[in-house]
Amino acid sequence: MGASHRYLGMSEELVSGLCFCATSASMTLLNKAALSAFHFTAPTSLLCFQCTLTLLLVGAAYLLGFGRPPALSLRLLRLWLPVNVLFVGMVWSSFYALRGIGVAMVTVLKNLTNFLVIFGDLYFFGKRYSTGVWVTLFLMLASALAAAATDLAFDGPSYAWQMANNVFTAAYSLWLRGVISQMSIITHKQGGTDELGMVVYNNLLSIPMILALVFATGEAGRLWKEPALLHPSFQAAAVASALLSFLISIASMWFLSCTTATMFSLVGSLNKIPLAVLGMMLFKAPTSTNNVISVLIGLAAGVVFAHAKATSGVQGGSSSSSGGGGRGLSKGRSGDLPRFLSIPSGSAVDLVAGSEQQQQQR
């Protein structure tokens, strides 16, 4: 994993993990507050604001001497463009889902993403997993169905948006692995691409597509009539969510560079527990005994999935479980690419778990 630093007596792995947990949970809660508590009806515009401010913050970081701007080329822009299409779809659908679903239910339904990704691994890469992993995934599915059936504030369109979000997230995860690896190869002579460089590409290409959505959905005409824009609390929430959009990108890459897939997966699953509880408390979501039970099943499924993957692994191939080779993303390895996905062979479940590890086909 490379040299390990210590901060206030704590390991780099622990500090980066805490930063990841804090930013990811805060981002979900703030987006929920901005869209639901203030009745803001222009989520695409909020997303555009977040991406724009993130780019400005990256520029400020470069001016202060943190890293160096990435090399921009037409080849890299074309390579990254599909990732941005999926990224915009992922975040946009998440906004619409959060408008009608409680945070606790969202944490349960997001578990379905792992289910989709493991099927992606099976279909695209021929990976096979143990019975324990499949049982855990079906437990996730059962929990999600129970959540929809017991949610006292059930909203059909919002649940549909969440299902779309799961599809976008799984596709984004499957494709991103290949893009990271290919960018490492293309930019190798320039020293690779670091965390800030990935943030630049992600947001630079996202903004034009988001602006197109703003006009296509009619938000441009009604945005300035939104009462929430004049509310100081909403303004603070919007700025805070944009700051977190920047921080979560850096924190997740940092955590991935100094930990293993198993640890990241466990932390991601366990982080849903306080998030679900906070969501119920802060937004006073209507609950029942069955509702709470379904949430607990989903949370338990997330933890069990991480444990099952750690103990059983992938059948039919050897794997390398390392936590990354340093702070940058310049040490990726290429592999055989599916004809239309352009992603290297490897387990996408590891990517969802947050690892850059590659599965070598022997």
Automatic annotation (TrEMBL):
Residues 22-300 form the Sugar phosphate transporter domain. One of its GO terms (cellular component) is membrane. Residues 312-343 are annotated as: Disordered. Keywords: Membrane, Transmembrane, Transmembrane helix. It holds the Pfam family TPT. It is a multi-pass membrane protein. The chain crosses the membrane at residues 40-64, 76-95, 101-125, 132-153, 159-176, 196-216, 236-256. InterPro entries: Sugar_P_trans_dom, TPT_transporter. PANTHER family: SOLUTE CARRIER FAMILY 35 (PTHR11132). This is Sugar phosphate transporter domain-containing protein. It comes from Tetradesmus obliquus (Green alga).
